[in-house]
Amino acid sequence: MNFNELTKQRFNDTNSVLCIGLDPIYEDIPVKKDTIEKTITNFLFEIIDNFGQYALAVKPNIAFFEQYGIEGLIALKSVIKRAKEQKIPVILDAKRGDIGNTSKAYAKSAFDVFDADSITLAPYMGTDSLSPFFEYKDKGFFILARTSNPGSKDFQLLKTENGEYLYQSVIKKIVQWNNEFKVSVGAVAGATQLNELEMISKYFSENNCPPLLIPGVGKQGGNFEEVIKTLRSVDYDLSRVFINSSSKILYAYKESELDYLDASKQEIYKMLLK
After folding, report:
1. Which of 200, 217, 167 has the alpha carbon at shortest distance from 59?
2. pLDDT-based confidence at 216, cuts 50/70/90?
3. Residues annotated as part of the active site
4. Contact 103/71 with Cβ under 8 angstroms?
5. What is the pTM of this model?
6. Which residue intervals of the chain are DSSP H helices?
7. Other CB atoms closer than 10 Å to residue 165's CB: what's the count?
8. Which homologous superfamily does the CATH classification assign to the domain defined by 3-269?
9. DSSP state of 59
């Protein structure tokens, strides 16, 4: 079963576009255990066990695990295993992309060691930096295109020689890669850029609906309902959509009087399809 088939089945079971970002911050985890590894795994296991039923996917960001060294990486492997035991697709947020041999090693780590179902990739170094990942035919790939951070305009809004923005060139390349490599290649497109998200989703909807990973809902200011309205305006296949929220869900208790799990549930309910 390839990534598109896996997530289509998951969508049919959950009717959800929610992607829960799993970004452990030790200082913010409300219940501490005797080691960093146990603290992270206990906390994220609770999130997965209590709220996995509402999620189309989970997205652990590898940097938040790497910052804790080997304990963090052991926790990452355990967390991915826990999600997959519950048949929740896993997007490893790693933003990889380098010369061929390096990318081959990155791909082996993501898919053979950590057993992720999908990964985020950076396209700056071109096709040869991504093709080692595309050799994993059953996996999914989300290419950074129009991201939600303020500095994204530094490069993504540069005009190319044919007059289009650089991110538009990336979007067209994603469609080309899908056709060339016969794999599930999609885009990362931020929730804070609605006009551009509409353009991207319209173009994608005309080209077999590559998957969309949409960060920026929550702390960065993106609005879930507005994103859904934008996607529905172009009749986008919502089974190909992953709207991510991380700290707004994980650490909701910090802005609430509720228990940390109840606070997280309250935030999750705001991101369910009506």
Report:
1. 217
2. confident
3. 95
4. no
5. 0.97
6. 3-14, 36-51, 62-66, 69-85, 100-107, 127-134, 153-156, 166-181, 194-205, 224-233, 247-250, 260-269
7. 18
8. Aldolase class I (3.20.20.70)
9. E
